[in-house]
Design brief:
The chain is α+β, with helices and mostly antiparallel strands. It folds into 2 domains: about 1-25 and about 30-160, Nuclear Transport Factor 2, Chain: A (Roll); about 195-365, endopeptidase fold (from Nostoc punctiforme). It is about 25% helix and about 25% strand. Strands 1, 2, 3, 4, 7, 8, 9, 10, 11 and 12 form a 10-stranded antiparallel β-sheet that branches. A hairpin with a 6-residue loop joins strand 2 (about 115-130) and strand 3. Helix 2 packs across helix 4 and helix 5 (about 200-205) crosses helix 6 (about 235-245). The termini are far apart.
Length: about 375
Amino acid sequence: MMQRQLQLLLLLASLSLVPQPHAAAAFTPLTPEEQVVKDTLTALVRQEDEAILSGDDRRLAAVFLPGAPSRDAREEAKERQSFLRAWVDARGLQVTSVAVSLRTPHITFRTPDRVQVFAVVSEAYTYRHNDDNVVHRFGLGVRHDYFLVREGGRWYIRADYFTDPLDQDTRIPQPATPDVGAAAIGSTEAKALDASGQGAAAYADRYCGAAPGCGNHGLYNSHYNNYNGDGGDCTNFISQALRAGGLRESGSWSYDRRRGEGSRAWSNAEGLRDYLDGSGRAEIFARGPFVDVTRPSQRFPQGAAHALEVGDLITYIERGKAVHTGMVVAFDDRGVALVDTHTSDRFHVPWDLGWDRTTRYLFWHVHYPQPKPPAAPAARSS
C-alpha cells in the first residue's frame, strides 16, 4: 500500500499540479480517443461504486481485469466495501446512492489497448438515518492513477493507485463501535450554531476542492501552494480557513506568499497541533478514541462530539502521530458534525468516516475574533 501511494505522490509531483498564484484554470479539450477513454473509465468507476454500495461482489469483480495483475486493486475495492458496510451498520445509517463524475487531466496511451489515466474522481453520496427519511448529502474528491487494459473487446481496470478516503488507516480497516446505549455520533435534538466560526466554514466550503458541493468550480485557492504531491494538503487548507475566519498570521504560523510556502505550523498536522496548543488560539476540550469522545458524561450529556461547533477542528491521531486535520462546517439533522478537508477532498462528510477503532481524536474549540455588531444608523438632524 505505501509503495503504491508513493507512486501516486511522485506522479502528482511530476505532473506539476500546483496552481500558480492568480493563474486562471485552463483545460485542454480531449481528443475523440481520449473522450472514449474518459467515458469508459467513468462507467467503470460508477459500476465499482454502485457495487460497493449494493454489496454486489460479482458486479464489483467485473470492473477489474481477471487474474493476478489487478488483484491488489480488486482486493482494495472489496476492503472499501467491507468498511463502508460496517461503518453504516455501526452508525445506524443507510447510504442510498452515489453519483460519479471525472476530470482527466492526463491520459497516456501506452498502446491502443493499454492506457494510463490520472483522474480526479468526484463522488456525491446520499444517506439517511435508519429511523427517519431525511436525506443528507456529502461529497468526496479523490485523485487516482489508473491503468486500463482492453481484452476481448472489453475495458478493465488493471491497477488503481490512490489514497483511500474510506480507509485512512489500512492496518485495521474496521470502524469503531459505540458503547451500547451511548449517544454515538448523533442526537435527536437540534444543534444550535455558534456564529464565530462561520467565516472559516464558508471559506472551507468554497475551496474544499473536487468533492461535489465545493465551490470555486472544484478547484483549490490558486493563491496558495498545493501540497498534494508533497505530503498532503490537509493542514495547509485548514490554515487558510482559520485565516479566513479571522485568525491573524504570526511569526511561527504564516504563509510566505513570495516563496509560495507555509511554515511548519501552517502546513503540517503535528506542527499546527503544537502551535494551537501553545498559542492559546484554540483549546482541546476532548480527546481519545471514538467511544470516549461520543460517550455521555457529566460535562457532555450527549457526548463531546455533540459539543463541536462550526469552525472547530478535529485532529486525527494514528500511532501517536497527528496525521490529518479537518474542520467542522455543518451538522446533519441529528447534530452529527460534518467536516471539510483536503487530501482527500471532502464536503460535509460525517467526521469519523474512514477512521477506524485505533484512531484517536483531538477536538479543538477555536477562539475566533467575535463578529462586530452592525453599526447603529446615524441619527438624522431635524
